Amino acid sequence: MQIARTVLVRLARLAGVVLIVSFITFMLTKLMPGGLVNTLLGPEASNPEARAALEAELGLDKPLLVQYWDYISGVIFRGDLGIAYATSRFPVWDLLKSRLPATIQLIVMAQVISLVISVPLAMLSAYRASSATDKAISTAAFGMISLPSFAMAVFLVYLFALQLDWLPALGFKRITGPEGLGANLRSVALPVAVLTAGLTAVYTRLLRSDLIATLQEDFILMARSKGLPTWHILLRHALRPSSFSLLTVFGINFGTLIGGTIIVEYFFSIPGIGLFAVESIGKRDYLAVQGVVLVVAVAFVVVNFLVDLLYSVLDPRVRRAGAR
Amino acid sequence: MTEVLPAPDVTGPSEPAPGARRHRRRGLGLAGWLAAGWLVLVTLAAILAPVLPIDEPGITDFAVPNNASPGTGGHLLGTDHNGYDILSRVIWGGRVSLVVAFGVLAVGMTVGGLVGVLAGYYRGRVETILMAIVDIFLAFPSLLLLIAIVAFLGADLKNVVLGISLVSIPAFARIARATTLSFAQREFVLAARAAGAGDGRILTREILPNVVLPLLAFGLLVVAIAIVAEGSLAFLGLTSPETVSWGGMINGGRRPLQEDNIAHVAMIPAFVMFLTVLSVNFLGDRFRATFDVKETVL
Known about the structure:
The complex is a heterodimer of chains A (324) and B (298). Chain A has 324 residues and is an all-alpha fold.
């Protein structure tokens, strides 16, 4: 019962955050210079009658709070994010749906690959802290953190597309396209590599320092004195209590990655959410911008909620604290 | 790194373990001096750009083809897709990074520091409200927020600096609050209060001097992130095209790189930016080690 209540309270708070974010975005879009009416009317914008007619048609003559209510109630009760008036005039939700797969593929691949790389690297680093291997790994990670993703993209394209000619320098092939999975993977290889490099550096540094702390604990000494093999101690004893910060940042990164994919999608011309956001902002398409922000905020909040739940799986103490 | 601003999880300065400070290496070391030297070079070149014997950054040289390789026709680093001299644009682009760095330090650190110190000192409802606002800001992909702010307010350099500062305020506030919390309980604050000092005097004379240095050390990290953030905006073509910026140069070099197999137009600014961010991060790391500001989330 208690757990169900905690979950409910947390869900309500998350819904609150999403509502506030949507409200702030809504108000921000009202600050847009020129605004939608100018974009739509073009040279006609100086005609007050045409302006008034269009504003009435779009509901822009109502008070701001009423406008916000119209918008958010449409979203909640009908799943209607409005129409992308300034660009394609398609429903925003349909446009977002067509852009989501590419972004999700990039984020999921980058997150999974960087975890797979960084966990063994961090173990190697932490088990022999201050060794030459550890120093090399730590230095490389530090360098990666200082490498902006667009600079990384330039270097990788130079090496793998120009010099070696292994991978395409830009573009995106859908899995469902005529060339299938192979072409799809080749087209996302460099973008995913750019995202993975930065993430791997962050995860490795984080897990390394937590592992080093855990390895000083008494139960590790105990395990060692029992004669357990090193890999067993690292994997079964040290990894789990060391993975909390990693898990937190892993969750947060689903949000920050949306920022990361904006750059990468733009650089490699990948039709994802990030490129959609840049295009919509450039064309002052405010309903499209609101739609992107709302979807991103919901995804971000939901992932963090799931991460919170995962804590209790990883750490029995959290589970008991929740039950109390 | 992909993110614009980190969500710092700070525990504030802790008591150093006995003997820990004695073992710490003094001085900057070779890498530290190289980093400092590079930053001094970039800064000096940026400040002196108008008087240096370099080409105008916005004038096409018709004597050489566009995208001329480094060394052609007196262009040490070649020319870009518009026939502009790359060396000159790299130097002028440094000015923007400099303005962004100091602007964000001035605005973000002042406002964020103030919010954090007040929240950490007064606690109670002030703290709850301020930190709730901070959390809402942190719960938001900051590059997207930044893009929105700049797109809505207009893309001149002043707004870019303001936007990045605004996004950096929550992180500064977190650090300042954590540091203040740890100092507000210390004996010298109690002593000052016993001697009859009011809140204003304690804040300015006892707390603030202790908060400034850790905040500044964290500030260097934010400077690196701010330079990348401005670079990202310029790279996405969202800042004013007249402003010469490294990110804008990389964006301009994207098509030569991806479609015409010409690498230097994008490679040179990318490399300059990498060296600069690396240097700032490296020095920041050293300072943070000295002032013992912990952040688990980078």
